[in-house]
Design brief:
The longest helix is centred in the last third of the chain and has 20 residues. This protein is an alpha+beta fold. It has 18 helices and 24 strands. Strand 6, helix 8 and strand 7 form a beta-alpha-beta unit. It is globular, with a radius of gyration of 25 Å. The chain has three domains: about 350 residues, Rossmann fold (3-Layer(aba) Sandwich), CATH 3.40.50; about 55 residues, Dna Ligase, domain 1; about 110 residues, no CATH class.
Length: about 575
């Protein structure tokens, strides 16, 4: 088999066009991990001598040899799901329900601290899309920042496909700012001085090299930092200490999410006495990462009972696989249909004690019935061909969105073999994500039969008229009442949903909330990809009245005339601006 300059097999160019992203993930080998660049980044740029050798010895399969390609639409969709979940978690009814079923420590008010490095993990492929789980102490962000410096492309133009999040040259500064923000939100009137990175027996943790990277990063920014086991901490007169060092903030990497283990007693008491800022904290884990939450987030009846707007419900129900708690009363049905489910413990992490249904034995099934498990409808992971040697070397992948305060900071892939991600796979591990076009017609590289151009035209639609990535997507919200059409800013809408804002101009009024997911070309609306509608009602103070919205008679559907005006509002504005 021969290959063109892109590293794609020439056999592909003789057949019908497959999906562009599928093509790149199966045929593109022009990007690879440059180990010399990785060592340079770890030891010179980052300033951590010996770390490369430590990684090679401790975790040789931490970094994948190939990147992963993801469509712009799926990148946007993952971000949309993050926003939707954050808006639900902000609802008082949701918080009350979840905390009532959580360990008592989860009810302790941590203040306004958000929690650093949430991880939203997705399975995305040409046939499916699904949020698999949420983590509140997701590892790997610093490692991925380093990795981004060490993948080499045969054509520099491929850098145009890096996602917006992964382009940031200031990620490390953003990380430091995030920790300062957590400290500031706690109401402190002095500067952050010290951080403890805490995990059980940290030097033996698989991701210990990342702890060293964080320590060095924080020290470069003038902070005093220690990596510690929680048993090394003491609480003295309201001050958490490590030896003689006073601790201001604890970066929590523990998997004892409720701090119930004896070794965590000092940390637990310091948290309950508000002697430290703990990030992420037990309440964040209960609200986001307990697997039982997926049962609520994938159930239309429960979402409606909680007062979740219809538009948000639609996003969640399309993106989160059906999930249910394993109980004796549904055990027989789940066993017979086990091949379509993945089984996970409520407080599981890192794929531990998680099982694909088609791999279950009756012995393991008994353990699941005796434990606390969810059954989640199976969503096939994406696949990445690492090489085309016979037989081809193919790995699975998932996508992790690192987030803070409802913002996606970084998107990384994890390549693996087996049931779950494991960092034990040859050529597997963390991989950079490249954002590609959605429509095969937008690809005009040498892999396509009707094009003689080379790689620089991978994202080439209207390249002569705009410098942005040609095809993008965004969500726009509108309020409709009779002849009135009012745009609604997404951030303002979230503030209204969370009860943080009121709209005095809408006091006592009802509207149809229209959510349009738009396809943009060169930044301008080109088509409506999806539409969801729901009633939205404002009370006498201008705040959202969820109960009243559920009681409105009639369908929340714009009339043809209203929809025509809405289209005119969105698309004619583009035509007018183009003529100026």
């Amino acid at each position: 088999m021969t290959h063109n300059k892109l590293g794609l097999s020439s056999a592909t160019t003789q057949t019908s066009r497959p999906d562009s992203i599928e093509l790149l993930n199966s045929e593109c080998f022009c990007l690879s991990l440059d180990t010399k660049a990785l060592k340079q980044a770890l030891e010179s740029e980052i300033g951590q001598p010996g770390l490369f050798d430590l990684i090679q010895q401790r975790c040789p399969y931490l970094f994948a040899t190939r990147p992963v390609f993801v469509s712009q639409a799926n990148m946007a969709r993952m971000e949309q799901v993050v926003h939707a979940i954050e808006s639900v978690v902000a609802l008082p009814a949701y918080r009350k329900k979840v905390l009532a079923d959580s360990p008592h420590i989860a009810s302790h008010n941590p203040g306004p601290a958000k929690g650093v490095f949430f991880g939203y993990d997705f399975h995305v492929n040409e046939d499916g899309f699904g949020l698999i789980e949420i983590n509140t102490n997701a590892g790997g962000a610093m490692l991925n920042a380093v990795l981004a410096r060490a993948h080499q492309a045969c054509y520099p133009a491929i850098e145009n496909m890096l996602s917006a999040q992964n382009r940031s040259r200031d990620l490390e500064d953003d990380i430091v700012a995030m920790f300062h923000q957590e400290w500031s939100l706690s109401g402190q009137d002095r500067a952050l001085h010290s951080i403890a990175i805490v995990d059980e027996n940290p030097t033996q943790q698989y991701l210990y090299p990342e702890f060293l990277l964080f320590q060095q990063l924080f020290q470069r920014h003038g902070l005093e930092v220690v990596i510690a086991d929680p048993s090394e901490l003491t609480l003295h007169e309201g001050v958490l200490k490590h030896g003689k060092m006073n601790i201001d903030l604890v970066y929590n990497r523990l998997t004892d999410f409720s701090l119930s283990e004896p070794a965590n007693v000092s940390l637990r008491e310091a948290y309950l006495q508000d002697a430290i800022v703990l990030t992420p904290n037990p309440q964040a884990h209960a609200l986001f990462a307990d697997k039982r939450n997926l049962v609520t987030l994938s159930n239309p009846i429960r979402l409606k009972e909680l007062g979740v707007p219809k538009a948000t419900q639609d996003i969640l129900l399309e993106a989160i696989p059906h999930t249910e708690i394993v109980r004796l009363e549904n055990a027989e049905r789940l066993w017979h249909k086990r091949r379509g489910f993945f089984f996970k413990p409520f407080a599981g992490f890192g794929g531990r004690a998680a099982y694909r249904g088609d791999k279950l034995t009756k012995r393991v099934w008994k353990e699941i019935l005796a434990g606390e498990y969810i059954a989640q409808a199976l969503v096939t992971p994406g696949s990445r061909v690492i090489s085309d040697h016979e037989p081809a070397h193919v790995l699975k992948f998932d996508l992790r969105n690192y987030t803070y305060d409802d913002k996606v900071q970084w998107v990384a892939a994890r390549l693996y073999q087996g049931q779950t991600t494991n960092f034990r796979t040859l050529d597997g591990g963390f991989a950079p994500v490249y954002e590609g076009p959605v429509d095969p017609s937008e690809i005009t590289c040498s892999t396509m039969p009707e094009s003689d151009s080379e790689f620089p035209a991978i994202v080439s639609h209207n390249a002569t008229t705009c410098s942005e990535a040609a095809v993008q997507h965004e969500t726009r919200l509108f309020l409709i009442a009779e002849d009135t059409i009012k745009p609604l800013e997404h951030d303002y809408y979230l503030a209204l949903v969370r009860g943080k804002s009121a709209a005095q101009e809408f006091v006592g009024r009802s509207f149809i909330l229209v959510d349009w997911y738009l396809r943009l070309e060169c930044g301008q609306p080109e088509a409506v990809v999806n539409e969801t509608c729901s009633w939205i009602v404002f009370d006498a103070e201008g705040r959202l009245d969820v109960n009243a919205a559920h009681e409105v008679d009639g369908e929340a559907t714009p009339t043809e005339a209203q929809r025509a005006k809405l289209k005119e509002f969105v698309f004619d504005a583009v035509a007018v601006s183009d003529t100026k």
